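URGENT: need a sanity check before tomorrow's submission.

F., can you look over the Glycine N-methyltransferase record below? I want to be sure the sequence and structure line up before it goes out.
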Amino acid sequence: GTGVDSIMLVEEGFEVVSIDASDKMLKYALKERWNRRKETNFDNWVIEEANWLTLYDDIQHLLNGGFDAVMCLGNSFAHLLDNYGDQREQIQAIRNFERCVKPGGLLLVDHRNYDNIMNTGATPAKCIYYNSSHTTDIKTSVLYIASKPALVTLDYQISTGKGEVSEFRLSYYPHKLKVFEEILRAIFRDAPSHETYGDFKPLDRVIQPAFYIHVIKKAGSA
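Structure tokens as predicted:
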């Protein structure tokens, strides 16, 4: 994306490598790095164009044994659609994430609560990742193929604060919680820990979270 999460991590002193397949998105991050280049952490911030489906090969020169953590948040992973009907590309992407994590490192990946969206036909306007006070409505559509949910389309209406409403559309793959957990367990075999949070809180403290966040530790030690 535009590097919002990366900027916060760089500001906290982390060494960060940010990737996106879209050069248009990378331009925002590159501009921020240039504007703050006199700050050492920002001058050292690595920004690369790469594809999740070829991620390990694309950034192998940066791995040095793997990252302490790989993060894919903000419902970003759901942008990768299921083009073949068997989630093969999504599984391939997560395998690449796993290969980029060093032994003992973490993967943090999230998705919206699509189980609830499909059950209710509605998407909560409140978002834990950005100021959603200007979101006036989200119209939700679910596309089924062969009786399986294949695509969720969200039509956003955003108040501009000047009496006008801006509209835009985003489409996602509707990940089911249990299926997503099974995929992670299959790829991160022998993982010593795998926690799932609801809106960054323990699941027993959230009735119906808007987002599920998975934190899984890779087996082994650095």
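My own read: The mean pLDDT is 93. The chain has eight helices and ten strands. If you see anything odd, call me.
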